[in-house]
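Mods, move this if it's the wrong board.
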Amino acid sequence: MAFIYDLTDTWNNAGISFNGIKLNVTDTASASGSNLLNLQINGVSKITVGKTGTVTATGIIESTTGGFKFPDGTIQTTSSLGIVGPAGPQGPQGIQGETGATGATGATGPQGPKGDKGDTGATGATGAQGIQGETGAQGPQGAQGPQGTKGDTGDTGAQGPQGIQGIQGDTGPAGPTGATGATGATGPAGATGPQGIQGIKGDTGDQGPAGATGATGATGATGPQGPQGVKGDTGDQGPQGPQGAQGIQGIQGEQGAGLSILGTLASESELPATGNAGDAYLIDGDLWVWADTDWENVGNIQGPQGATGAQGPQGPQGVQGETGAQGPQGIQGATGATGPQGAQGVKGDTGETGPQGIQGETGPQGPQGIKGDTGNTGATGATGATGPQGETGPQGPQGIQGVKGDTGWPRWCNWSTGRDWATWNPRHSRHPR
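Not the wrong board. Structure tokens:
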């Protein structure tokens, strides 16, 4: 290697005082032999520049031009031939030169000793929750606990509101009224029909696990009376009573004008432009009827519920007339209070089945009732196969010391009476062991 450092710089501004090499040392404490510059060959110093500015060289210091300038300001360009006088006093320290350029970075020094352990850092933020692990295998089934006390019967839930009545179907044309026929002789009462087929028996519930047999406890006090049992099946119908006398037939009323409710509309604006006599629509509870040239609101056709009248005495049965055509179904009124049950009349002929009305919308579901009582416990199932014996559990804590028992009798005494054996049975010459 021809050189270690081969530095090149360019000075190109006459207004700046450049430095080729600048070293600025902050000397807060150092030995007097400290040097700003120490040039060596084979470990031997050749030129040194001390921290006070003293330049020491082991060889010749040569000035080819300009000579040497001394502290008093004089410059000597040639050597003096006169007698060398005594050394003058040391001049004042010269002005500190400008700091040289920063030298190259030295080699990395050896690693220092390990420092003391630092303080514990602040706790880091909690990490995100890990993915949930898979569900472990189900453990063995524990022993069955004792049956809990039967809970009280819950209150019956409130009944949901009644659904809206469906739209009435169209009424068929009324047939002509037939002549009243002669009253036929009353036929004998029909025999009671056979009882309906009994429903299919429900499946037997799963048998509960057999509990361990507990020790027989003392007889408990008589418990309160249990709830009333399920209502039994209805008994067979009794024989029909004798037929009452037939009442006088009432006067037939005049035939009313036909009325056909065609449907329900949301507002008056949905009414058709024209209609036929008897056409009607329901709008918000009011009945709109076609009256020759326009639709007329005849009002709300459902009046307030009247009080239930007293039941009158049953009159004699009149002559049975022919079955008339079924009239249009009226709007359902509010349910009145239930009156007392009257005597059963003679069964009339079955009328013709009317047209089925449009099904009403289903009302909102009522709130769920309170959970009923738990059903009776099923019969004890067959004992299952004995499972493998489980591992012995850890020993439990020692129980509380029991109450000290009464002092026992001597072993020669009768255990049931406490009397001395020799007195009780003098035939024994010695005490039994």
